[in-house]
Amino acid sequence: MNSIKEVFYISHGSPTLSIDESLPARHFLKSWREKIFSPKPRAILVISGHWETDVPTVNAVDRCETIYDFYNFPKPMYQLKYPAPGAPDLARRVKELLTQSGFKTVHEDKKRGLDHGAWVPLMLMYPDADIPICQLSVQTERDGTYHYNMGRALAPLKEEGVLIFGSGSATHNLRTLRFDGTLAPWAVEFDKWLEEALLNGRYEDVNRYEETAPNARLAHPRPDHFYPLHVAMGAAGEDASTELIHRSWGLGTLSYSSYKFTSAAT
């Protein structure tokens, strides 16, 4: 079994990423296997900002249904499907690792498929839909450190050939979208702060971003799309190197900045 040293955080932005050829982030994800990560993982664990629960929850299904958790978008988007196999064995392993690390209650959902925070990037990254997928929820009533520790608990999965990635948005305030395409200075400032903090290994600053980052509440009125990053950081480990692998913008305030964390050789 080949181990995996990389963990990723992907900004998935708008659901239109699934069909809009004009979005640079779409082409970035379509080049995934050629330019970013070529090995085929045994399974994938995705942490999406679109699944919020009170306690950590994994979907343990045999086949992943495609969830259309968006409204009033173009009809072709509702005809897309990503029928990847589920990964119930991985779901049980995730539950085992979390409970062993002090997360006392972890649930399994035996019906839920993949929300668009998972299937939209996955259909571009792995269009054959032939890799088993497990999804893990976030807990928005908790903080960044909680999710960082969740990631630390899941780090052994890398040695088991599992690709871990968080899916959210580096900035995510849907009330401030700019349809003229001009960039919001506050969003650019937060995005640059995040890059500098990650590339310099200031994980504690990112864990406490509401206290340390400029425009934190404006960039993330709710933490749902940011916490997948904390899980990815934790799974990578404190000794990981960080690389910005993509940056583009949508609607003036949505950052598609995405990161690769590479664990140091042991």
Question: What's the helix and strand layout?
Answer:
Layout: E1 6-11, H1 24-30, H2 32-36, E2 43-52, E3 57-59, H3 88-100, E4 107-109, H4 116-125, E5 133-138, H5 144-154, E6 162-168, H6 185-199, H7 203-207, H8 209-212, H9 216-219, H10 227-236, E7 241-246, E8 249-250, E9 254-255, E10 258-262
Parallel strand pairs: 1-6, 2-5, 2-6, 3-4
Antiparallel strand pairs: 1-10, 7-10, 8-9
Helix pairs in contact: 1-4, 5-10
Catalytic activity: L-dopa + O2 = 4-(L-alanin-3-yl)-2-hydroxy-cis,cis-muconate 6-semialdehyde + H(+)
Pfam families: LigB (PF02900)
EC number: 1.13.11.29
Compact description:
This is stizolobate synthase. With 266 residues, this protein is an alpha/beta fold.
Q: How many domains in all?
A: 1
Q: Spatial order of the strands in the main sheet?
A: 5-2-6-1-10-7
CATH superfamily, by name, is LigB-like
Second rung of CATH, namely the architecture: 3-Layer(aba) Sandwich
What is the average per-residue confidence, as pLDDT, rounded to a whole number? 96
Question: Any idea of the CATH topology?
Answer: Protocatechuate 4,5-dioxygenase, Chain B
Name the structural class.
alpha/beta
Largest sheet: 6 strands, mixed
Low-confidence parts lasting 5 or more residues at pLDDT below 50? none
Percent helix among the residues?
Answer: 25-40%
SS strand fraction? 15-25%
Distance between the termini: 16 Å
- Give a count of the beta strands, DSSP E runs of length 2 or more: 10
Shape: globular
Number of helices: 10
Please give the radius of gyration in angstroms: 17 Å
Determine and state the CATH class.
Alpha Beta
**H/E order of the elements?**
EHHEEHEHEHEHHHHHEEEE
